[in-house]
Amino acid sequence: MSYKVILSPIDGGEACRRALGSAYEIAKTSAGHIQALHVKTDSKEAVPLLGEGMSGSMIEEMIDLADRDANERARTAKAMVDEFAAENNIPITDDPASVTGPTLAWILEEGREDERIAGRGRVSDLIVMGQPSDDASHPSLLTLHAAIFETGRPVLMLPENAADVVGKNVVIAWNGASEAAGAVAGGMPLITGADKVTIVTVDTEKSVGGGGGEALADYLGCHGVTAECRAIDAERAPVGEVITNFCSEIGSDLLIMGAFTHSRLIQVILGGVTRNIIANANVPVLMIH
Predict the structure, then answer these.
(1) What is the reported pTM?
(2) Could you tell me if 240 and 276 are in contact, meaning their C-beta atoms sit under 8 angstroms apart?
């Protein structure tokens, strides 16, 4: 397995440039094709219609302003993609089979970004994007949720301090759940190429029996991967914090984990490991649901 089609949402911000950098490093190992997707907001949907409080001319003016802003954002995103391609000598093409080596495509669509990411993501091998935040230059949490919940594909989330190259020192957060197994399967191209792999299990009452770290290590051994097993007691600290602290301690550059073992609603209301890591991760995270 390899990542032949890599999708990355692009809005022109620095988080997107970092995502392109990581996508390119991954694409170089498999002559992959990067799809840089910019979703232009439909100006008619972006403008709230306030009924009797607004005249027709006021509504038209607001739509025109929203349309101009959307066009400017699209131009900025396209300029960034063109600059990145030129700096790295990556061919921009919609026909990757005709070119040897990694390629890049610029895709412009109109609508809601989360819906477009969901649709494109289902026909991709990997989705690469920045860590969500309130900063306008970062992807939204809604877009990340769509990538995780609606595609069934691995999603690589990159924090601000992430280097372009990831996956040399990999930590797998393992609890025996099907989501964790899916994350391992989705991350195999990176796991098999890593210099070091560590399986970490955190003892909690929510751990799934019958799927210890040793069993996963034996499985990875069949794929030529030597993995070390580490068991950590969470004590009273949040599991997400325990895992990210462990990654920092051993200098990991990639955490692989299942996302939202419990329902999204429970995670939003009560919090959870995934939600904690999405908000606070200081290491790139590959997730799948």
Answers:
(1) 0.89
(2) yes
